[in-house]
Inverse folding.
């Protein structure tokens, strides 16, 4: 095989600088300090990693010095020391900060993290861009897992590719790259969490780096074009970091923007140019050198500090957390990373001892994780009341009812079939909405059973019941699947003569912000092309809800609207559990709707619409709040199970007035 470009015979300071362009956006994004697309920093790391590791592998194969044992010796010395240190420190902090439910989940994530499989665990249990994941101190280890899974097989692939002509090897890598990219785009639409976390839909990013190694080196006459390419690479990364939002379909084709930008900078770095000179600026190089340790430390610090305080960090606190992360990263780089990486002239026996030490360290951490899981998060650390509150956070509606409870992003005929099945002859009562309808399911079903009636529950998480309207996220991307679901459900209910009563509930306030400090989580439109703003959204809100009620009433259905419930800064039961654990005042756990004016505004609009159209209205705020102040429950009974959903007791309390 002909010699690959950029054999990596010397240290490239521009790559250290490029690492800083990866880590800084990630830090700011996670700390909530701007840069909405900062999550693309991980994609930059993937491309850099694929380039550097492939450079080493192809160079050693070409020189006849390829050693699988030697490769893993270097990987262990590079990855394990700092990782084990962070896992140990995080576990010690978790023991005094995390509640039993959180520590139990942490134990599982610790086990998967030390086995470099945490991406699989988080794929199964979380949504990176969904509900806040602040109670997952090891969430960031998913990217390490993706890389290490890639490098289990990649050295063996390189052994084969190195024996082929360069063009043949390049063609094979490009075919694999394109296949992975197409899979990534398909999964991003069909199963976004799988696309985000799993290796098959991420490997193309590492293969971009490998492709650069197989390209012929640039001729001196092309250095001017390299300089232009470097500037273009900076522009692509800047665009992604500034203009991407966490609601974008990602990774898929969208990830090409930061990945191609990184590739341009890596290739352009083989010659002098403005981008290369910028990346060799000493502050950027310095941050890049400690970027691995900085990545490891920053998320546990941000996560655990917010959990310890039972509230989001202020701007000053977030900055302080990042400064602390940087200081720990510098110490980690100097006293943990460097001593292990700078060992030279390692013979086979030493390499085997390194591997054995690495396996032993993994075994110790895995054993600790096993204890945390087996002990169910060590609940004996907490007093009884704190344990009681913590269990509320784990409670979910559990009744098996006719109908459907959709959670995926897409809607198909097969998925919708249980939702639209005729209700002949029973049930004659339907509950329709999103997860805020689902939270009422058990209490409403029990209430109806007392009257010998059966409930059908038709819900789709994240899809508020606005038939005839288009739902958009905070950056204006349409949720066509949600619109299709709502329109089909309304038509199905209207057409079914067996259905006599419809309860409708949703997270109503999310489409009416911002107001009085509240946040806009989404918008509504009646027609494509309308302005994406609060005024248009409010108008569509009113028209949609009125239209639904009128259509249902004309079809002879009774209609009951269930109003919005309060929303808290953090999980109410977990906040109360920590307060009981420490003996603190729990007033900070309560909700103040003066900063969430969209919620009482939605309540007023819905109450008015119900009165105008002859619908029944359940005023949840009246049941759960005093004015704009909302407590967490009555006595030792909590009415909420997280930041914005009521508990079983809360649902019963809301619906109690209607039962009388």
């Amino acid at each position: 095989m002909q010699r690959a470009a950029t054999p990596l015979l010397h240290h490239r300071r521009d790559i250290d600088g490029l690492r800083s362009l990866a880590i800084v956006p990630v830090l700011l994004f996670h700390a909530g300090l701007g840069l909405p697309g900062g999550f693309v920093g991980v994609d930059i790391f993937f491309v850099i990693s694929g380039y550097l590791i492939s450079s080493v592998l192809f160079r050693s194969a070409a020189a006849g010095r390829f050693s699988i044992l030697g490769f893993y010796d270097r990987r262990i010395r590079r990855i394990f020391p700092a990782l084990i240190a962070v896992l140990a420190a995080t576990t010690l902090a978790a023991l005094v900060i995390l509640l039993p439910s959180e520590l139990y989940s942490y134990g599982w994530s610790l086990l998967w993290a030390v086995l470099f499989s945490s991406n699989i665990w988080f794929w199964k249990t979380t949504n990176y861009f969904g509900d806040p994941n602040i109670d997952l101190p090891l969430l960031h280890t998913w990217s390490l897992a993706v890389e290490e899974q890639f490098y289990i097989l990649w050295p063996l692939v390189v052994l084969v590719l190195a024996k082929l002509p360069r063009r043949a090897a390049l063609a094979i890598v490009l075919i694999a790259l394109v296949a992975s990219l197409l899979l990534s785009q398909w999964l991003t639409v069909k199963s976004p969490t799988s696309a985000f976390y799993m290796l098959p839909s991420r490997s193309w990013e590492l293969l971009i780096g490998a492709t650069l190694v197989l390209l012929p080196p640039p001729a001196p006459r092309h250095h001017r074009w390299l300089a232009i390419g470097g500037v273009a690479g900076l522009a692509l990364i800047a665009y992604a970091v500034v203009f991407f939002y966490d609601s974008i379909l990602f990774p898929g084709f969208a990830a090409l923007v930061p990945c191609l930008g990184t590739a341009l900078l890596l290739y352009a770095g083989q010659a002098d140019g403005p981008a290369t000179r910028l990346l060799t600026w000493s502050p950027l190089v310095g941050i890049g050198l400690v970027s691995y340790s900085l990545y490891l430390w920053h998320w546990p610090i941000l996560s655990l500090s917010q959990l310890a305080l039972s509230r989001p960090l202020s701007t000053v606190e977030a900055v302080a957390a990042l400064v602390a992360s940087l200081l720990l990263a510098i110490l980690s780089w100097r006293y943990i990373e460097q001593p292990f990486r700078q060992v030279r002239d390692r013979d086979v026996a030493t390499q085997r001892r390194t591997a054995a030490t690495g396996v032993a360290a993994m075994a110790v951490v895995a054993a600790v994780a096993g204890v945390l899981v087996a002990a169910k998060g060590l609940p004996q650390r907490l007093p009884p009341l704190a344990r009681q509150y913590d269990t509320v956070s784990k409670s979910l509606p559990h009744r098996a009812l006719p109908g459907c409870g959709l959670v995926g992003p897409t809607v198909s005929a097969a998925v919708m079939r249980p939702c639209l099945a005729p209700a002949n002859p029973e049930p004659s009562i339907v509950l329709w909405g999103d997860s805020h309808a689902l939270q009422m399911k058990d209490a409403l079903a029990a209430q109806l059973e007392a009257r010998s009636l059966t409930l059908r529950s038709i819900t789709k998480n994240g899809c508020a019941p606005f038939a005839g309207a288009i739902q958009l996220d905070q950056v204006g991307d349409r949720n066509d699947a949600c619109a299709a679901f709502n329109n089909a459900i309304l038509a199905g209910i209207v057409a079914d003569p067996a259905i006599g009563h419809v309860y409708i509930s949703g997270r109503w306030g999310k489409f009416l912000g911002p107001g009085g400090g509240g946040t806009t989580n989404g918008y509504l439109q009646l027609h494509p092309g309308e302005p994406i703003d609060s005024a248009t959204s409010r108008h569509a809100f009113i028209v949609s809800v009125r239209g639904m009620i009128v259509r249902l009433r004309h079809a002879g259905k009774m209609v009951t609207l269930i109003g919005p419930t309060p929303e808290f800064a953090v999980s109410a039961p977990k906040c109360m559990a920590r307060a009981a654990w420490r003996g603190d005042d729990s007033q900070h756990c309560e909700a103040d709707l003066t900063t969430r004016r969209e919620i009482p505004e939605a309540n007023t609009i819905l109450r008015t619409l119900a009165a105008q159209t002859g619908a029944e209205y359940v005023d949840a705020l009246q049941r759960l709040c005093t004015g704009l102040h909302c407590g967490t429950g009555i006595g030792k009974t909590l009415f909420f199970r997280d930041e914005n959903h009521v508990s079983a007791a809360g649902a019963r309390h809301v619906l109690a007035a209607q039962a009388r």
Notes: Confidence is low (pLDDT under 50) at residues 2-9, 515-520. The chain has two domains: 13-380, 402-659. The first helix runs from residue 13 to 31.
